[in-house]
Request: fold
Amino acid sequence: MARPREFDEDAVLDAAVQCFWSRGYEATSIRELIEKTGLTGASLYNAFGDKSAFYQRALDHYVEGSISARIRRCEAMGPRESIEAFFAEIVKRSLDDTERKGCMLVNAALDVAPHDPAFQKVVAGVLSSIEAFFLRRISQGQADGTVTLSHRAEDLARHLLGVLMGVRVLARVRPDRALLEGAVKPALALLAADQ
Reply:
């Protein structure tokens, strides 16, 4: 019979997220993960596997607590309002990020995914879920008359995904409110219903 775990998995994953997020996958050592999580090397490997598997779990934990949670909050709003709220939260998080860590998912896309086909699939899957959120909200807005019919819903969703990625990358090097809001504002204006 397996022994029950003697640690708080969420707390360990939170510590791992902070470690990987601030230093990146390559620069984060197993020793550092052991120090930050408080686990022994054997416990870390038994519970999470190797560094790559632990990074995957940490990234999943980040996505669930950040991106998926944001989508769930925004889904409860009207179509246009949900997209506006999504971007308002992104800009706020970007400006509040004094360490300029950026988005862990975007960091994974740039740091790990180019060299690891498994992570490419993981990152692509999350980006697809964000695009699907935009597509649902735009389609609903086109159906209720609050979003323009001048562009295909699929094209607008892809455009918003591109703007999101651009904002998150810009925020790492130029976390300037005017810059970030200036990137978002025309994209939101593009959604405006035809008069």
